[in-house]
């Protein structure tokens, strides 16, 4: 059972549409929330894997073989999409 | 609702999602690729991964279990053959799905479909070459034969069902990494894919044909010179069938066409005489077996190490296959059922490449550019014109038209020169033994169950292509070897050059009867093979091909002198780095070098070579000096003569030069550089070669890589040549002409030693790991030990061993 990866944008949108807050705050919480979600998930997987795969992937990408950078890139992708998803949601309620 | 900011922000969000869901060039869609829930992170296997599972496969007849040991080698216990191969298929897919599909895509000429045309169309050309070789045509021919055998058909069906059972339960989380990188999905497995995989091995192992290169060299060489450059026997040959063996007279007598001299050989009266790429005639191997008379235990020992291109994931997958009727252990090919090299409770077997030339080209005269009719036996004969659709990733399909003649497909024509091998004005049709339908799989199926020599003989009899040296040893204390394949009986030099395709008299005639294939029956103290000529000239059939020489020589010399052999002795022999070629070639270099013409710096390198111990060990500095010097000498000697020839040509074998100089150095005219007015002697050539070698060596020395291990720079590359997924820069010894044939990217792909004591003792290792997933600790965990020349003790599990400490995980299969 998997939802497609972009469901995170939808989730951020819905949450922001339900909770009234300023657009920049919505963006920030969407950004941070998704940054933390993907970042922590990736870091957890990577720790259990003892960086075997991340070190290889961080050379293919290329990120100088740094698994930390790879986790950051992963988290940022989710964060930006999540941020904009939340921002869009916040405008639904905003008068 | 603030409509404008809402729309802008929604557009940005949707835009981001679309961009991150799109693949750009070689970059996969980043959103799903990076997602920790479904992307590549899912391939990062926890290092303490628990492989214990219970699985339901509705196709199973009875319950079955798979026990994994600490190296993740599966010990499969099934109640019948169909369940056994169903599970083997499942496990191959579970651990190696991507490679098995990739290799069969390669065999079928479908790589453009998944990676695109490549730079300079190299991938597309690769695909066209495979299509034009008739790979799918050949696989279909074999599939028909295989499926007409009920037992083979059952096995293949079960195996295919097992692979597909795994594919059907794949989720986006369990998709192998390479599919994500290339952004495609696996398709279903089929029996045709199994046949294609086996044909790919035929393709890989019947490369010893040099028809076009020899034809080019012949254009500028006299008959005498040609035979000197490319002889078909060697002075120091130590053949598979020992010298002095008497052969019964041949029962098949191939007849050379009456027109051979005028139409085929067309020898030049005088020699005028190109440098070429020197191919790595790679795919060699060693195998041998010693009987109990020569061992300390009184029981036979069998050894095998097939030398192939080394890649990750490895070509081999180690396993034990057990049913109440059979019990085989060894390595399997992900892509085919059964154990390919291994042993059972009664016998052990191994293979080396037979290196026979079973691939010949015919020059076709087409009526017109449509290439739909060709001149044959004084009439126009219609060709079977087939259109191949090559799908290309990201662009429209490309259609390639291939004409099939009575000989086979026209591989090279005006539309395809095969990487510069042929020209636009020539049409070469291919006659290849692999085009004939045959059931090679059955050999392995029967070997897995063989109980002695008779069973072994029955098993290998039907093995047609690629010709292999099958070594055998049994607990009955018998050792034997057969050079086995279906070989056309050729008249002398038939098919060494491109043959006229206008005349049926040039076609292959009868096959050599199987019983007349070179072999050593039980009764000898030892048998061996190392891709050398299977027999000397006393053998009544012409054997063509380009054979190795030195590994066979040193193996036979060592085995002859050894007694009271132990497994440790065999480990040492199998990983031995002594260079017997250098043993005969170094004295030539040292005898002829004009030392007075050398600078002090050059003399230093000479001193290192002089004190070299002839071993290709990692720390030896003499080894790179020798190989670089010798390669330059070959260029000095041959290139001027071959310069005028059409390209490509190939250099004579290394032994040809050594043996020619040893035979008669004064009369060795090729030392003279025909491009200079002076008469160069062998001493001039040796000195000039050394002077050319020194700058290369000096640079290596300056960079701290003159020691052989660093100079050679062995590595195991990923099949996609993705650097970080390979294991490069392994400091390990060995090389060309050495028993430990580890070259840069090529070498012993599986080392195995089997001691046939009451309870079989076996050792083995391959440079890879059981998991094909680069994110697993089992991906490359054998490589360090392999590079150090160490072995794993192979654990043959017995039925009652389910609680043994070796069992780490259990997979239970039920309906």
Overview of the molecule:
The complex is a heterodimer of chains A (95) and B (815). Chain A has 95 residues and is mostly helical. Chain A has one domain (8-93). In chain A, 78% of the residues lie in helices and 0% in strands. Chain A has helices at 7-18, 23-48, 52-60, 67-93. The longest helix of chain A is centred in the last third of the chain and has 27 residues, at 67-93. With 815 residues, chain B is an alpha+beta fold. Chain B has a domain at 580-614 and 621-706. In chain B, a hairpin with an 8-residue loop joins strand 23 and strand 24. The longest helix of chain B has 27 residues, at 81-107. Chains A and B meet through helix 2, helix 3 and helix 4 of A and helix 1 and helix 2 of B.
* Morphology of chain A: elongated
How does the major sheet of chain A shape up?
A: none
By oligomeric state, this entry counts as heterodimer
Helix content of chain A: over 70%
* Strand-residue proportion of chain B: 15-25%
Let me know the number of strands of chain B: 29
| Helix-strand topology string of chain A | HHHH
